[in-house]
Amino acid sequence: MLDFYNIKDRFPDSSIKFQSKIRDVLDKNLGGQINNWWNENRITDEIKDTLAEIGAFGELKAINNHSPLNSLEYGLLMYELERIDSGIRSIVSVQNALTIYPIKQYGSSHCKKIYLEQLQNGDIAGCFALTEDMGGSDPSSMRTTYSKKGGNYIISGKKSWVTNAPFAKVAIVWAKEAKTKSISGFIIPTDSSGFNIYSIDDKMSLRLSPTAHVELDKVSVPLSYKLSGASGISSALSCLAQARYGISWGVLGSIESVYQESLSFSKSRSTFGTNLSSKQLIQNKLSNMISMHTKGLLLAYQLSVLLNKGMPSAAQISLAKRDNARAALVSARNAREILAAQGITLSGNVIRHMLNLETVDTYEGTYDIHTLILGKSLTGDSAF
Questions:
Q1: CA–CA gap between residue 352 and residue 358 (Å, rounded)
Q2: Topology annotation, domain 126-230
Q3: 188-217: per-residue pLDDT in tens?
Q4: What is the DSSP string of 261-324?
Q5: Of these residues, 59, 73, 80, 364, which one is catalytic?
Q6: For site-directed labelling of 58, which of 100, 117, 255, 269 has its Cα 20 to 30 A away?
Q7: Is 364 annotated in the active site?
Q8: Spelled out in words, what is the top-level CATH class assigned to the domain 7-106?
């Protein structure tokens, strides 16, 4: 791992070995073909099999071991997945933070028995449907509604940008009670009558992360399929906090990838009689990348310490997601400039990372939204 400040000296040996094993498997199985698969806009059997091999598609456990991952190891896994591709990390984040977590945390015992084991074993995939076209960064304004009818809930509405939806077997859907306007979550089988999935195939970012719009037309689920332990929009946001933590680690892996490619290119390319690496502007870009990666790694590591002690504040998680995602996007853009024309082709990884990071910087809370979360924490005043 790229580590300018020897931060790994703080990691337990077991976590270092875990990361090394994950890196070896990902590089061996995916490294050489990832650009082709991204260009073809498809998640392949090789990707699925590799995620299964490292125990990443299901309840996250140490490779060749059945012990659950701690917060640091979870972060290191996200780092290695996103070093390969942000879309692959997204698939894993949604399965764990946004599907398994809410069912474990808020679901009925009945639904836990039906779905948890299948999800944890990676036998089925899940998705998380919160965002709507007219809501965006304001999920509490959702128009999807639910009402109780006999022994069932009826849910109707439209959800947008639902990761994993094209192949998910179960969805976590958030809706507003038609009369009281209270927000609740529901566990909905995707083969339910009235549950319609429309795959988004023309996106030029996260092409290895299948995404769809979802339309619910009077979908009926039993009363036990409500996330009865959830309480309003705050419960939905608690799931997002889990995912944002993973992002704060994952994007650092993408910085390592674009930095290493830029450094190698600058040393091999000669211009005006000397290597690019000897030019001040190039050195400035490389120095900025290593600086942002180092600060981000310190931030993510300390957040893992806070998480092991108990859930950190929403503002602490927002700071890490906000700063690290933007640092990764800026690094990828700078790397693209260093590689010049070569940087816009899939002969390397930079343009793929850059396009992916345009989405990562936006989803799970934009830079501006996290700025407002931080601002409210600092001043006590809401600027939303």
A1: 10
A2: Butyryl-CoA Dehydrogenase, subunit A; domain 2 (2.40.110)
A3: 999 999 999 999 999 999 999 999 999 999
A4: HHHHHHHH-EETTEEGGGSHHHHHHHHHHHHHHHHHHHHHHHHHHHHHHSPPPHHHHHHHHHHH
A5: 364
A6: 255
A7: yes
A8: mainly alpha
